């Protein structure tokens, strides 16, 4: 947290989580049309922002999704499960830091 006041830190985390939830929703929509480029883009963004906030689990899942999209190396069902795991993980962080 460093020099950031606790209330500001909480606002930043809330912004990250709100944005992450929206990106996951867009990934789910992109999966319906099999648009791996969109999924890859959002996974890449979440990987970086998760890293910046120190949310290692979000970073790792996002990186896995990104790599699977780049390599086109998993089924839609597997990708759906990974995106859902990412969504569940974000929800876990939301309940820990926001609620």
TrEMBL record:
The keyword Hydrolase does not apply. GO terms for molecular function: protein kinase activity. The modification Phosphohistidine is found at residue 44. It comes from the Bacteria. Keywords: Phosphoprotein. InterPro entries: HPT_dom_sf, Sig_transdc_His_kin_Hpt_dom. Residues 5-97 form the HPt domain. This is Hpt domain-containing protein. It comes from Candidatus Kryptonium thompsonii. The lineage of its organism: Bacteria, Pseudomonadati, Candidatus Kryptoniota, Candidatus Kryptonium.
């Amino acid at each position: 947290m460093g020099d950031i006041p606790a209330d500001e830190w909480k606002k930043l985390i809330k912004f990250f989580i709100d944005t992450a939830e929206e990106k996951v929703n867009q990934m789910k929509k992109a999966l319906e049309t099999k648009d791996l480029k969109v999924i890859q883009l959002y996974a890449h963004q979440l990987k970086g922002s998760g890293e910046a906030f120190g949310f290692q689990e979000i970073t790792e899942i996002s990186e896995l999704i990104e790599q699977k999209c780049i390599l086109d190396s998993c089924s839609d069902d597997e990708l759906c499960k990974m995106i859902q795991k990412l969504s569940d993980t974000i929800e876990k962080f939301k309940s820990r830091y926001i609620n």
